[in-house]
Design brief:
Two copies of one chain form a homodimer. Chain A has a single domain (2-80), classed as 2-Layer Sandwich (Mth169, Chain: A), CATH 3.30.1280.10. The relative contact order of chain A is 0.35. The first copy, chain A, has a three-stranded antiparallel beta sheet with strand order 2-1-3. The first copy, chain A, is elongated, with a radius of gyration of 16 Å. The first copy, chain A, has helices spanning 17-28, 51-66; strands at residues 2-10, 34-47, 72-80. In chain A, 35% of the residues lie in helices and 40% in strands. Chain A is of the alpha+beta class and 81 residues long. The longest helix of chain A is centred in the last third of the chain and has 16 residues, at 51-66. Chains A and B meet through helix 1, strand 2 and helix 2 of A and helix 1, strand 2 and helix 2 of B.
């Protein structure tokens, strides 16, 4: 079994309303040193395939479902379980 | 400036409906090797404080806003920008 970890971030310059809301809430809670918050998502995909196939499959999953290339950057890591 | 990275995961055994939906979608798209998907969130918090204060502040943010200890595990990393 393999675990592919896909980290999906909003690109620099793309508005992050959720991050802004969290920053605002943290400031209101008294955390005045907080300047910015960005939110990213991590997909941990457990795969039953070979390491060579996994890399290709995950890149295809990213393209077909997990990432919108207009607004997202992403990185993929594959490791054996 | 410092960047604190807070990774928030659902605990083992806690149901992840979003992950299940993604797994199901991936299977439907033909990715039959996918056995499980878990979704985590990453908060990147930019802080204007000292490294010593930052660690303590972030632990407090985690407790007050970012994490529900009943269902979440988390890890914190602090680095200078």
């Amino acid at each position: 079994m393999l675990k592919a970890t896909v980290v999906v971030r909003l690109k620099e310059g793309v508005d992050d309303p959720e991050g802004k809301t969290i920053r605002h809430s943290l400031n209101l809670l008294g955390f005045e040193s907080v300047r910015d918050v960005r939110v990213a998502r991590v997909y941990e995909v457990i795969l039953d395939s070979s390491p060579e196939d996994a890399r290709r499959e995950v890149e295809e999953m990213v393209r077909k479902l997990l990432v919108n290339p207009v607004i997202h950057d992403y990185e993929v890591r594959v490791e054996e379980l």
